[in-house]
Amino acid sequence: MPLRYLIIGGGVAGTTAAETIRKNDPVGEITIVSDEPHRLYSRIMISKPHYFLGKVPAEHIWLKKESWYGEQKISLMAGKRAVRLDPDGKKVVLDDGTELGYDRLLLALGVCARRWKIPGADRKGVYYVRTLDDFRQYQPASKVARQGVVVGGGAIGFEMCEMMSLSGLETTLIIREGHYWDPVLDQTAGQMVESALENHGVRVIRGQYVTEALGDGSLTGVRTENGTEVPCRMAAVGIGGFCPHVLAEEAGIAVNWGIRTDGKMGTNRPDIWAAGDAAEYDDPIFGEPTVFGSWSNAQNHGRVAGINMSGGDETYSRVTFYAVSGFGLNIAFVGKVAPLPDRTFVSRGNPEVGYGRLVLKGNRLVGAQLINRTPEVSAITRLIETRKDISGHLDQLADAGFDLKRLP
Ligand SMILES: Cc1cc2nc3c(=O)[nH]c(=O)nc-3n(C[C@H](O)[C@H](O)[C@H](O)COP(=O)(O)OP(=O)(O)OC[C@H]3O[C@@H](n4cnc5c(N)ncnc54)[C@H](O)[C@@H]3O)c2cc1C
Fold first, then answer.
1. Residue 53 domain flag
2. Number of domains in the chain
């Protein structure tokens, strides 16, 4: 009997898993269930200015042709949501009541955008930036809005500022922290980002929560906790995401920050794997639980899960990487950058030549934040991977002119 593979989530993790399974198992039945009504598209592009401004053809968003699913004998059930999982009976129930049995199941659920819980949050003009359908609402709105507000620091906030500003909107960024991307970025790096924004005409309001979205039906402005009112016709809310793991939790699957997996993307329940933004995995390089939202991470999770689901044996191991660019800055994060209590930091460079902060755990390099120092990414990745004791090289790490490739 052919095996029945069921994949919940049709993003890059789920689709890569399906593609990998098909390579290893030509006869298995593969079904992808996705609550979005689309085939695989580039989620990345919906916040990139060249796509937003129509500089590339709209159809470049699609990463698979419609015919691909048929050719691969992969059944895509788009616009259907999995609402219940029964691991003992090996079945999943969809929102229309359909029951799907499986032999092997993958949860590739991604993350959901955290919603505003303030008065006026449901006004027309308040947008989230996660799906193609979100994009199809905020992109046309930006053409007539004239004034826009971005709420929240981080990668999406940065990109939304650039998109609004390039669209000619008078743009205001509101962050609750004292500086941009605090505490991931230190003050020097945060101020570099803020200066770049301000030099391009973006107004930055720091240390303020938005307490109300104003207007009568449609958005006319936002009010912050100290009473500041900022007029706007559109607000892009980028206040973080959360993993929609209720489905897993209710089925007795271990969940922490994400759905817990071992190094092979397997969960604590037999025949159930998890991958992508929704999966928490033990980083094999440092043995720390990690949840990381990036395209390449999700793609590789999907590949490893697909291999293991179809009888192979592979462990996920990779130094994480995320980069965002705009306003003349390239901001890159390599490895573990969270400022945990057991970390120490070495600063490198300055805003004129490019600034970085290297993150150490004990004697080892575990991560780095780099602004306009992108050429150092590969040397830093190697130093993290090799897990060498670098305590004898702290002066060189701090010397912005020293070529990190020369470290042993
Ligand atoms: C605007 C934006 C810009 C980004 N830019 C970058 C970038 O420049 N570089 C980078 O590396 N990363 C970027 N990312 C992150 C990257 O897109 C994600 O890490 C990646 O898409 C995660 O893939 P995934 O398959 O794990 O999840 P997703 O792509 O989120 O796919 C999961 C899918 O599962 C669906 N789903 C969830 N629950 C259910 C259910 N119960 N039933 C059915 N379907 C369900 C979801 O709706 C979604 O369609 C960006 C993300 C966003 C939102």
1. no
2. 3
Enter the DSSP assignment of 284.
Answer: T
CA of 174 to the centre of ligand 1 (A): 25
Give yes or no: residues 247 and 107 share one domain. Answer: yes
Per-residue pLDDT tens, the chain, 408 aa: give them: 999 999 999 999 999 999 999 999 999 999 999 999 999 999 999 999 899 998 999 999 999 999 999 999 999 999 999 999 999 999 999 999 999 999 999 999 999 999 999 999 999 999 999 999 999 999 999 999 999 999 998 999 999 999 999 999 999 999 999 999 999 999 999 999 999 999 999 999 999 999 999 999 899 999 999 999 999 999 999 998 888 888 999 999 999 999 999 989 999 999 999 999 999 998 878 778 999 999 999 999 999 999 999 999 999 999 999 999 999 999 999 999 999 999 999 999 999 999 999 999 999 999 999 999 999 999 999 999 999 899 999 999 999 999 999 998
Q: How far is the CA of 81 from the centre of ligand 1 (A)?
A: 15
**CA torsion sign, 146 to 152 to 158 to 159?**
negative
Return the residue matching tokens 């500022």. Answer: 161
If you measure from the C-alpha of residue 41 to the centroid of ligand 1, how many angstroms do you get, rounded to a whole number? Answer: 10
Which residues constitute the domain of residue 248? 4-48+61-111+243-309
Q: How far apart are CA 24 and CA 13, in angstroms?
A: 17
Rounded to the nearest 5 percent, the helix, strand and coil shares of the chain are 30, 30, 40
Residue 233 lies in a domain: yes
Ligand 1 centre and the CA of 13: distance in Å? Answer: 8
Give, for ligand 1, the residue of 61, 64, 109, 133 to mutate: max count of ligand atoms closer than 8 Å to Cβ: 109
Distance separating alpha carbons of residues 283 and 378, to the nearest angstrom:
19
Inter-helix orientation angle 187-199/155-166, to 10°: 10
Question: 119 in a domain, yes or no?
Answer: no
Which residues, judged by CB distance below 6 Å to any ligand atom, belong to the binding site of ligand 1? 8-14, 33-36, 43-44, 46-47, 81-82, 108-110, 129-130, 156, 244, 247, 276-278, 293-296, 298, 322
Please count the CA atoms within 13 angstroms of the CA of 394 that sit on its side-chain side.
Answer: 11
